[in-house]
Amino acid sequence: MNKSELVFVPSPGLSHLIPTVETTKLLLLRDSRLSATVLLLPPIIKDTNAETYIKTTSSNPTFSPRLKFIHLPPIQHSNTHFFEQFDCQIPNVRHEISKQNPRPAAVVLDLFCTEFVSVAAEFGLPAYLFFTGGAICLGVFQHLVSLRFDRNEDVTRYKNAEVDLHVPYFSLPVPAKVLPAVTVDEIFFPEIFLSHFKRFSEMKGVLINTFYEMEPYAIESLLSDDKTPEIYPVGPVLKVESTFIDEDDDVKKWLDDQPENSVVYLCFGTVGVFDEMQVREIAKGLEDSGSRFLWSLKRRENSEYFEGFLERTKGIGRVMGWAPQAAVLAHPAVGGFVSHCGWNSTLESVWFGVPMAAFPMHAEQQLNAFYQVKEMGMAEAITLDYQMDFTGVKPPESVGWEVIAGAIRRLMAEEGGSGVRRKVEEMGRKAREALGEGGSSYNALTLFIEDVMRNVD
């Protein structure tokens, strides 16, 4: 029986690491001929959650015989731009691949690790991309690469522009204001980002953490594009077995006492931190909406106003730090999700049938919010183009409490506002069908495995 070793290189952020490793586990469960090595790049910031996740996965007897993790040592670099922390690891990646015996069948790279495609080529190995975002985002990156390098267009002119773009992967015109800042804002070196993503065309194929029924228009557009490698929509790949830990027992008990679909959950991702003014606006909006709530707030405010808010909402709301998001969304009391619209959170919203109110902050979140609200009608909008300012150059934006309160009321209405609850619940059923035997994602994963096995000598 031919066996096949895959080498995965995820970027170190938890939102990229988890879906990559969970996809690796899914492949190993599907085919006993497969084994995998995951090369772990040094983290930008120490993350104990990532460390715990890797340790737990490594010790899982279901996978440990065929799944190994290798921590790559740090390398000094000038840190002139974001990609240097990844590109400088080329010698370490080359060294680890050279040690693999037998020879790997393929290398699977993260979006931020596309420079490693040259290392795969040195060894005559096919390279695949694992894209942790959605097909719409992949399509937009592809479109902007084409504008910049095929048409020699200065895409930075779209920064904050009041124009709509006709992007082949959307059925609606896309406002320039929802384009990922990393592709149009000079502060983030868009030329470097797009140059790295241009190497996408050198991949043999692309695994995407999505499913056909979620993004049919974008997937069909990618499949019909002769410049796009083979596409494998294999999602939603999620870590959904999250449970409440001991210190969260009182939160779970509180949720257990709430009526079904009555609690709105607020969480804005691992780096979603607001300034004091925006925190107050959210608090006032929550209070005015009259909804029960559970708010995962990374940085607590100690002002007199916020303490008064906590006192006034005692009994109908809870504020906590880190929250086990999957466990919260799975709880029957939770009926709405105020979210930053990161792709993992978007997929969790769908999986658990909990509709979102969109409050995007950075990266591709504005694009995800636009798609969910405008194209799919599966989310309410608080804002679609809010941008976190990482530079401190301009005053922070602020979304008013009236807007927040109105969106929460629509979200938590019995019928889910404009039918969003029904649509999300239906898409959740389709997600499970996609992963089941004979489903669209199941079949896509089968095709990928077949393609990999053809690479084995």
Strand order of the largest sheet: 3-2-1-4-5-8-9
The CATH superfamily of the largest domain appears as Glycogen Phosphorylase B
Rg calc: 22 Å
CATH topology of the largest domain: Rossmann fold
CATH class of the largest domain: Alpha Beta
Any idea what the shape is?
Answer: globular
- The structure class reads alpha/beta
Low-confidence stretches: none
Mean pLDDT: 93
Largest sheet: number of strands, sense, barrel closure: 7 strands, parallel
Number of strands: 15
The CATH level-2 architecture of the largest domain is identified as: 3-Layer(aba) Sandwich
Between the first and last Cα atoms, what is the distance in angstroms? 12 Å
Oligomer: single chain
Keywords: Glycosyltransferase, Transferase
Enzyme class: transferase
Family: Belongs to the UDP-glycosyltransferase family.
EC number: 2.4.1.-
Question: Any key phrases for this structure?
Answer:
seven-stranded parallel sheet, alpha/beta, Rossmann fold, 457 residues, 15 strands, 2 domains, six-stranded parallel sheet
Secondary-structure blueprint of this entry?
Layout: E1 4-9, H1 14-30, E2 34-40, H2 48-58, E3 67-71, H3 84-87, H4 90-99, E4 106-110, H5 117-122, E5 127-131, H6 135-150, E6 164-165, E7 174-175, H7 181-184, H8 190-198, E8 205-208, H9 216-223, E9 230-233, H10 249-256, E10 263-267, H11 276-289, E11 292-296, H12 304-312, E12 317-320, H13 325-330, E13 334-339, H14 343-351, E14 356-358, H15 365-375, E15 379-381, H16 401-412, H17 420-435, H18 440-453
Parallel strand pairs: 1-2, 1-4, 2-3, 4-5, 5-8, 8-9, 10-11, 10-13, 11-12, 13-14, 14-15
Antiparallel strand pairs: 6-7
